[in-house]
Amino acid sequence: MQIDLTIQKELIFKAKIALKNSYSPYSNFKVGAALLTSNQEIITGTNIENRYFNLTICAERTAIVKAISKGINNFQAIGLASLNKDQNIQYNCYPCGVCREFLHEFTPNILVILETAANQIKTINLTELLPQD
Ligand code: THU
């Protein structure tokens, strides 16, 4: 499954908007996610931290939780964007292991879309990030 480049760019753009709402006073690392549903809806999420850091929820899981709560559980792709603690774009920010498992629960072959450098986009299938399930 591939996604049109225009939509890939839109997902990264919406992820960048979503990260503005990040609640991350402990890491100062802001992440945004934009989930493309099977019926072309885009649902965003951001990371939400807690002083007990284990309770932190990543941007990817926030987006999934929002979608499932709306009754949507089929996805095509998830675009990601991050700002590091110096508020510079963090390229090549892959989903953490927990988020890979969480995405896999609903769409094992979801396409993950990342920025690898200024204006450079990479797509990678979750089957490559979480092989041999
Ligand atoms: N984080 C995400 O939201 N998604 C990722 O893919 C990587 C990590 C968040 C969790 C935490 O709030 C901060 O980034 C630093 O790890």
Explain the overall architecture.
- The chain has 133 residues and is of the alpha+beta class.
- The protein has a single domain, classed as Cytidine Deaminase, domain 2.
- 29% of the residues lie in helices and 26% in strands.
- Tetrahydrodeoxyuridine is lined by residues 24, 27, 29, 31, 47, 49, 56, 58-60, 93, 95-96, 99.
Helix and strand content put the structural class at alpha+beta
Terminal residue distance: 19 Å
Task: Assess the beta-strand content as a share of residues.
Answer: 25-35%
Q: Can you tell me the residue ranges where pLDDT is under 50 for at least 5 consecutive residues?
A: none
Instruction: State the helicity in percent bands.
Output: 25-40%
Rg value: 14 Å
Under the CATH scheme, the architecture is: 3-Layer(aba) Sandwich
CATH topology annotation = Cytidine Deaminase, domain 2
Bound molecules: tetrahydrodeoxyuridine
State the assembly state of the protein chains: single chain
Task: Write down the domain tally.
Answer: 1
Q: Tally the beta strands.
A: 5
Mean pLDDT: 96
CATH homology superfamily name: Cytidine Deaminase, domain 2
Main sheet properties:
5 strands, mixed
Strands of the widest sheet, in order across it, are 2-1-3-4-5
User: Number of helical runs?
Assistant: 4
CATH class: Alpha Beta
Secondary-structure element string:
HEEHEHEEH
